[in-house]
Amino acid sequence: MSAKILIVTGDAAESLEVLYPYQRLREEGYDVHIAAPARKKLQFVVHDFEPGFDTYTEKPGYTWPADLAFSEVDPGQYVALVIPGGRAPEYLRNDPELRKILKTFFDADKPVAQICHGPLLTAAIGSLSGRRVTAYPALELDMQSAGATFQDAEAVVDGTLVSARAWPDHSRWMREFLTVLRAKAPVT
């Protein structure tokens, strides 16, 4: 039986930030499950930049089924966690089931990869205090308010926590996360 990794997400997650780690980790031999507030087909989005806009734009992206609802997740079955960005973390941080799942991973010091707006979830459970992280650059003040030291870098590794700014940083983010995974939770 191969090691299992959990991705937590919801509607309006950034398509690339869900599907790239999903596929990359499966290539490595991990069994990857996607959990959301409900077991349903999720609607992801694409964030990109347009000339003349001060911030990113959002367009409909891929759809993908959630394997299970947050209420069905047994965190003890998983060796690691991935937290994609997009707009989903803005509302997911209010979900008490998800906060329990996240806390379990951090309390057990299991590998966690977060990207873009994903650190809003780890901030919501108080797990960024005293840590070094990166996130989408517009979240620098949020990260500092959560007690983290923000670094504007492709990937930041702080123990078992690996963070990245956004989808252009995928290669570095996954390289660093796989280094942590191979040490802490290798494929069996």
UniProtKB/TrEMBL annotation:
**Source taxon at top rank:** Bacteria
Q: According to its UniProt record, what is one Pfam family this protein matches? A: DJ-1_PfpI
- Specify the protein name: DJ-1/PfpI family protein
Q: Which Gene3D superfamilies match?
A: 3.40.50.880
UniProt cross-references to PANTHER family, sorted A to Z? DJ-1 PROTEIN, DJ-1_THIJ_PFPI FAMILY PROTEIN
Q: Which family does it belong to?
A: Belongs to the peptidase C56 family.
Query: Which InterPro entries has this protein been placed in?
Result: C56_PfpI-like, Class_I_gatase-like, DJ-1/PfpI
**Which residue range or ranges hold the DJ-1/PfpI domain?**
4-178
